[in-house]
Design goal:
alpha/beta; Rossmann fold; nine-stranded mixed β-sheet; 11 helices; 9 strands; disordered N terminus; binds zinc ion
Length: 318
C-alpha cells in the first residue's frame, strides 16, 4: 500500500467508525418525507414515554391544584403563586406561577425550567442564573416553573428524567386551565437540566409552540464525561442520541443555545453541539422548515442568552 492509500485508508476507517458509533441508535432520525417524519416522531414519542415513564404514557389524574401562598412579584403588576398539582395518583409536583393580577384578555405562557441546584422559586424571582423567568413576564407571558431538581426516584420502574419531565408536562395541563392563558400559545425554555427537560417536554408534547434549550445540546458520549449521571436511563442510548429527541420538535420553532466558553469534560462545548445541530437541521429540512431551528452560539459560558429566542418566541406565540 503506498502512502496516499494508507492515509486514505486511515481516514476512511476513522470516519466510518465515527459514523458507526452514531448509527447504533435504533430510533435514529432517517425520514426523507414529512409523512415519514411524522410517523417516526409518533413512534419515537411512544418509545420515550415507555422508556422514561414506566412502560407507557401515564394517565393523568385530575390536577387538584392547591395554592399554598400568593404574593406580589417585584415588577409589572404580576403576582406570584406557590402551588402543588397532582402529577400522578401518588405524586404531587411543587411549582411557582407568575401571572398578571389584572389580566387583559388571553395571553401566552412559558414553562420555564431551572438547572441543577435551582428551583421554581428562583425562576419566577429571577434569582441566581435564572433571570429569564421575570424576562418572560416582562414580555407579557404567564410563567410557570416546577421544581425538577430532585435526585430521588419515586417509582423504581421510571427514570429521574421521566418523573421530572412528567411533572413539567402536568404544569402545561395546569396552564390550560388558567382563564388568562391561551392554550394555543405555550412555549418552554430552560438552562442546563432545564434545557434537557425542555428537550423532552417539547419532543413529547405537541402543545408546545416554541422551545429554547440552553446549555444542553450535546451527545450521550459527552454526557458520560464529568456530568452528574441523572440524565441517563436504561434503553436511552440503545435507541436515541439527543439530536433524535430534538428531531421530535420539528418543524416547530426551536433555539439551541451554547456558550463559547463551555469546555469538556463536564461542559457542553460548541464543537460537540455543532454536529448534533446539523442532525437536527436535517429533520427540519425534511419539513421544509430549516429556518425554524437555530443554534445560538453566544460569547458566554453555561448561561441563558435569549437573544435569538425572544423574536422567535414573540412570532410563534403571536
Ligand atoms: Zn443530576
Amino acid at each position: 500500500m503506498n502512502r496516499n492509500l494508507t492515509l486514505t485508508f486511515i481516514w476512511l476507517t476513522t470516519a466510518t467508525s465515527g459514523i458507526a458509533a452514531e448509527t447504533n441508535r435504533t430510533q435514529r432520525f432517517t425520514a426523507a418525507t414529512p409523512h415519514d417524519a411524522i410517523q417516526w416522531q409518533a413512534r419515537a414519542r411512544e418509545k420515550l414515554f415507555a422508556l422514561m415513564m414506566g412502560g407507557a404514557k401515564p394517565t393523568p389524574p385530575p390536577l387538584d391544584a392547591k395554592v399554598l401562598q400568593r404574593s406580589d412579584a417585584t415588577n409589572g403588576g404580576y403576582g406570584l403563586e406557590e402551588l402543588t398539582l397532582q402529577s400522578l395518583p401518588d405524586r404531587r409536583v411543587h411549582a411557582w406561577l407568575a401571572a398578571p393580577k389584572n389580566p387583559k384578555g388571553k395571553m401566552g405562557a412559558v414553562l420555564a425550567l431551572h438547572g441543577h441546584g435551582g428551583s421554581g422559586s428562583q425562576i419566577v424571582r429571577g434569582e441566581s442564573l435564572y433571570w429569564y423567568g421575570p424576562k418572560f413576564a416582562e414580555l407579557g407571558y404567564v410563567v410557570i416553573s416546577p421544581d425538577i431538581g430532585q435526585h430521588t426516584l419515586q417509582h423504581t420502574n421510571w427514570s429521574l428524567m421521566g418523573e421530572r419531565t412528567w411533572d413539567a408536562l402536568r404544569c402545561i395541563d395546569y396552564l390550560e386551565t388558567r382563564p388568562e392563558v391561551d392554550p394555543q400559545r405555550i412555549a418552554v425554555a430552560g438552562l442546563s437540566l432545564g434545557g434537557e427537560t425542555t428537550m423532552y417536554v417539547a419532543a413529547l408534547d405537541t402543545r408546545i409552540k416554541a422551545a429554547c434549550s440552553s446549555g444542553w445540546l450535546t451527545t450521550i458520549a459527552n454526557m458520560k464525561k464529568g456530568h452528574c449521571p441523572c440524565w441517563n436511563f436504561p434503553g436511552l442510548e440503545e435507541h436515541f442520541d439527543f439530536a433524535d429527541i430534538f428531531a421530535c420538535v420539528a418543524p416547530r420553532p426551536l433555539v439551541l443555545e451554547i456558550g463559547e466558553k463551555e469546555r469538556a469534560p463536564g461542559g457542553f462545548p460548541v464543537s460537540i453541539a455543532r454536529p448534533a445541530f446539523a442532525e437536527i437541521q436535517a429533520a427540519y429540512r425534511v419539513f421544509g422548515a430549516e429556518p425554524n431551528a437555530m443554534l445560538d452560539v453566544h460569547p458566554g459560558g453555561h448561561v441563558f442568552h435569549g437573544e435569538q429566542f425572544w423574536p422567535l418566541l414573540q412570532a410563534a406565540l403571536r
